[in-house]
Amino acid sequence: MRNQLIKLFNDNRQSSAAGSGYRVANSAGEEATVYLYDAIGGWWGITAADFVKDLAAITAPTIRLHINSPGGDVFDARAMATAIRNHPSKVVAQIDGLAASAATYVALSADEVEIADGGFFMIHRAWTLAMGNAGELRDTANLLDKIDASISADYQRKTGESAEQIDAWMGAETWFTAQEALDHGFVDRIGASANVENHWNLSAYAKAPKALTERQPVSESVFDHAAMERRLGMLERC
């Protein structure tokens, strides 16, 4: 079976390349703003290395982390989540549209989690990319089992739900509306509806709701072109 994480990255190359899905603003002010509007990890998403470096440079007492992400690589996301937990500032995660897969544990690592009215929150088993021989791939699979257990524990702490319930939701690829995410304790409150277009291709997922599979055209005006410039700069250094 084709690796679904590769499919997620490949299907969303246009969305990631159309403009910057990641930027940091006002890092030394009273409230810094971080936009995570991209896939996580891989060739076309925001990497943990960039995120952790930029987060460490923020001195503002409060960080507002805006999220609209289809998910991505579990290891990049876990590294990002650890950096958020260890940061001395108060971090408020604001899900403006979608927090799916790996993006959910980035969100839940914040001190407070808010989701926009009309937003979605999806949990499932962890994904990653792996190469190697049979033994190395078995080691990766075993590591993913441990990651799933760790993620499940995080969800349990946040929601108060049982391990059995969380594991059932993860195994079923469960999509929560904003109200359902609040009712089950994944988020702390529902905010105003955000003016965020759905330009993600979610065909890598088996159960994406119809409201999210009817994509809007990618707008090049959503952000500046910093992300593409960053990627081009990386290629020029190679």
UniProtKB/TrEMBL annotation:
One of its GO terms (molecular function) is ATP-dependent peptidase activity. Signal peptide: none annotated. The keyword Hydrolase applies. NCBIfam families: Clp_rel_HeadMat. Belongs to the peptidase S14 family. GO terms for biological process: protein quality control for misfolded or incompletely synthesized proteins. PANTHER family: ATP-DEPENDENT CLP PROTEASE PROTEOLYTIC SUBUNIT. It comes from Pseudogulbenkiania ferrooxidans 2002. The keyword Protease applies. One of its GO terms (cellular component) is endopeptidase Clp complex. Pfam families: CLP_protease. This is ATP-dependent Clp protease proteolytic subunit. Keywords: Cytoplasm, Hydrolase, Protease, Serine protease.
